[in-house]
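re: ur question from yesterday

yeah so i grabbed the chain u mentioned. its 439 aa long if i counted rite. heres the sequnce exactly as i have it in my notes:
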Amino acid sequence: MNFMIDSDGNSAANTQLIVPPGSEELFRFYRMQLLPDGFPGATPIGLGLPNASVQPHPLYGVYLIRMSLDAWEAQGENQLLQQAVRAGYAAINRMDWRSEALIFIYPQNSAFNRLNRDYYSALTQVKYVTTFWRLYLITKDDLFKTATDAALSSLTIPVEEGGVMVRRPEGISFEEAPHPVPTFILNGWLSILENIYRFAKKAKSKKGLQLFDSSISLLKTLLPYYDMPKFKNSRYALAGSVPFKLQLSHNARVVSGRLVTPRGISVPLEIGKPSERWSIGLDKTTGEISGNFVFPIDSVLKMTRIELTVESDYEETIEFLAPPISYNPLRGAQYHKDFRPQRSSPLAIGTNNVVFKLKSKRYEISAYPTNFKKKIAGKHYNVYHFMHIKSLRQLHQITGDSVFKNYADKWFEYTRHWPSMQIYQHKNIELKCPPTMQI
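ran it thru and got these structure tokens back, copy pasting raw so excuse formatting
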């Protein structure tokens, strides 16, 4: 079965979006529309862009292809197959080659990019691995097989080289949205592992199984850091964004700075540039310098350091301030308005090297427990905690390793305590498993 496309990615398939039967509500939720080449996107609403045109969303290609193929297999409607294949070709045409890797960039100017810089996502990439492979099995078009292998190769590019793979002595991980300081978002990591394993077994991919085994090794090492007995909960990630201020007079200037993590990752501070939420940055304002840093909590043996070079015209003091951090079940980490002094250092006339050492305990809630933000039928559910449990049980079935079963059982037992815990007594919070999920 061959489906031909021209140099612009066009085919003879219908350019009108065909909504698979039973998916109408979901397509309305995504606001999905087709672009001229058959790739799906949406008009970004609620983003201050009232007249915005349809923009491509990398993940929407996966959604459209999978749902179209599911409906085609159930009903045999060839237009749905044509729609899926055409979207697959369009996805490949929209992706970039980097050596032997094929990547789908979230461009800086996209309304669906919150990082204010180009990046690609391991979660998106691995979904294309399984999706391209499915298209290859149906069409027998070697282009989809090549794209499958190339998308898998994208997972092997280290973060420090602009990729998504985090390397540790114990193994590797994959970042949903790469940062110099790894965030280790647990649900994304677990989903990536499940997709890699499913593909590797079906395609008999040695490379896929090697990636899976190496990542399982690191996950076992880091899994205890996700456990939060105090809240009877699991962490969403192992790093969080922390706002801060540096208080000093106009007679002193921060010339340069960097964040150094306990594992030795050094991230420069960008002086005078607006900072994004998940970045290192310093934004110079009236009499203060303020910004955010990503605080890692996957090591408790050493302190995270902020190292500054400060020039001063007088003998004075520089203070490091941060707000108290608490956990809000409906939001996650909640930062209070009042910034309080945490560290201070004297400044001499001339150039000063200042080091502020930050303890993990003080900032660990920035890597917050899973929350109840997801709303289903008017109720707020803790979707991610139950997804953690479900995925760990699946990993136990795959690997036979009891560590995954033990944490899955422990975290499920936590949910039995929620009804008696004051922190979870909020209006419209539902403490049971979401109705759309079976664990």
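noticed a couple things. Residues 1-13 have pLDDT under 50 and may be disordered. also The first strand starts at residue 32 and ends at 34.
anyway ttyl
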